[in-house]
Amino acid sequence: MSPLDEPLHKLVGDRTAKVLADSLRLRTTGDLLHHVPRRYAERGELTSLDELEVDEHVTVVARVEKVTLIPFRQRRGNRLEVVVTDGRGRLTLTFFNQAWREKELRPGARGMFAGKVGVFQRTRQLANPDYQLLDADAESGAAERFAGRLIPVYPASAQAPSWKIAQCVEVALDGLAATGWEGVGDPLPPALREDRELLALPDALERIHRPRSQADVAMARSRLKWDEAFVLQTALARRRAADSALPAVARTPRDGGLLDAFDAKLPFTLTEGQRKVSAEIFADLAREHPMHRLLQGEVGSGKTMVGLRAMLAVVDTGGQAAMLAPTEVLAQQHHRSITAMMGDLAEGGMLGGSDVGTKVVLLTGSMGTAARRQALLDLVTGEAGIVVGTHALIEDKVQFHDLGLVVVDEQHRFGVEQRDALRSKGARPPHLLVMTATPIPRTVAMTVFGDLETSVLDQLPSGRSPISSHVVPALEKPHFLARAWERVREEVGKGHQAYVVCPRIGDEEQEGGGSGKAARKSAKAAGEDLEDLDGGGADGEERRPPLAVLDVAEQLRRGPLAGLRVEVLHGRMQPDAKDDVMRRFAAGEADVLVATTVIEVGVNVPNATAMVVMDADRFGVSQLHQLRGRVGRGSAPGLCLLVSDMPAATAARSRLDAVAATLDGFELSRIDLEQRREGDVLGQAQSGVRSSLKVLSVLQDEDVIAAAREEAVRLVAEDPGLERHPELAGALQSLLDEERAEYLEKG
Known about the structure:
Elements (H helix, E strand, L loop, with lengths): L8 H4 L1 H11 L4 H5 L5 E3 L15 E15 L6 E8 L4 E7 L13 E11 L2 E5 L2 E4 L8 H5 L4 E3 L8 H17 L11 H7 L4 H9 L4 H32 L12 H8 L6 H14 L6 E6 L5 H14 L3 E5 L3 H15 L16 E5 L5 H13 L2 E6 L13 E7 L6 H8 L7 E6 L4 H8 L4 E5 L9 E7 L4 H16 L3 E5 L14 H11 L22 H10 L7 E4 L5 H12 L5 E4 L12 E6 L7 H8 L9 E7 L6 H11 L3 H12 L25 H17 L7 H10 L2 H9 L1
């Protein structure tokens, strides 16, 4: 076993090892040494305190400016307030009943202070922070330890501050150096290291943790980025090689068949982008191994048309195609629009149906028993060439005659497990096409890694109008919100319609009140997807509950939209009631639809020109982009107003500004990736702090990732089993635990 695989408790003791494992998921010596500093402080340098984010665990290097001991008025005890500064910004350190610290935290003292950034009386603070003074601290030896070199500042937690991590790293490095790094293998082949002029692994780990200069840091980071990129690309290259060996039925549409008949019926001309992307898909379908393609298209660019033509091509070969939609509203809408576009071609085998046609069926969880039984029969006998459905398609009872293609609409709403469950219903692996307007961060990462073949639709069909988007700062400028409602009335006055979107339904009282927790529970039950109901306020203080559909609709009927026909739509309504509301809204029998994110995808009402998103900061970037795509679907321009109480300087407002500034879904996904990280590239986490990447940045290091892919593909072609590269095989085994290996197998 490599020394890097040694459990940490042998190195730092059981208690410290448990803290590192529980708070930072560091369990081995290798985990610890690959937990690299997020930045480095120079001797005498102070941290920029005006850039600290609320709720972030930070370690700052600062100078004590002022110390005040404040007795409690109504009870025994005291509060010690220590103000530290970097010369521009200030941060308050608060200690409760620890007056003795006043003797060592004197004005002028420099130190490292660690804790979670909070807010008290609108001032940022660290409550009861851990700290270590850097100057004239002979007992701790901090000054001597850090003298003459950079001070590493590590990603930390409340239980494991930066300098305690640094102490553990020192112990690990000293122990390995004493043995000459004996037994520590290098996953990068020697020839690759030499060609790319990369440091050896021991040298890189020494320099990343004990740099003498920024040049040391740059060289070490370059090497460690290659480690991550190359090992990941090797894993993906091996999977791609295995995929290419899987048998699939080649699906080539026949001349004069269903696809040709459909194209001849179209009342419009396909865009150049639609023709180009369709050609890429047809080329994949003609191969004898499974297609795995992402279709990224702007909202309204005609992705559904491209997906339908791919399904028709498969039906032409005698196969079946399934479209998986995330909600019943969207599944029903897809079924209606597909059957309407196909006309008699969707009535194969029925009286009046086309000779080259097929049957198109709908399958959802709320269907009646008789309709469901008939749909299942049509699928198993092959009568139905196309099925559109929700998660109901995944159930065990659903069987296909010959499933040849799975089309997943809005892939960010489904996990790999769900997609895999549907694909497993084919006698041989079916082809897979996933469609989205805004890929989740993990998908962006996988396209950068080259593991998804990608087609992009960036051209809107003729007749589609541009959408203008604006942030409405309701708290700072309430008259802006009043103007927003005036704009809605103006659009209705022109004969158009509008949406108002809220993050909550409003009937949560039966579940324990209107708290964020209850709201999330209600939203989950209703099928909505809320990303930030529990977030704190702009300054970390308690926020009001998110605005609710039922409350806002009533307020609008009585107030700014009085006299207009206002309807509501949310996920807790019965399917028939939801369908009825959408039909009436589409028919122009309602002026304003107040809804949750149940309208996020697929809803197509060309006459709707305006959207007001309440509490817009509580939605994710992808959601906002999807919601915005519900307007501007006709010949009149679209308007999207993002209403928020968040102040201008917050991250939430920056996110809204980014959405308002661009209509490019892929660009917004990259912004989302920068903010939320890419998740576990090889595992279940789709985004957030569980990124499996330590040093590598998907967006900043695309060149490294691409070069590593070339090297990995070449190596796997020469040595598929990695018999000649045992160190790389070991690194791969460490990277791919059982869960990740299974996930990669299905992915």
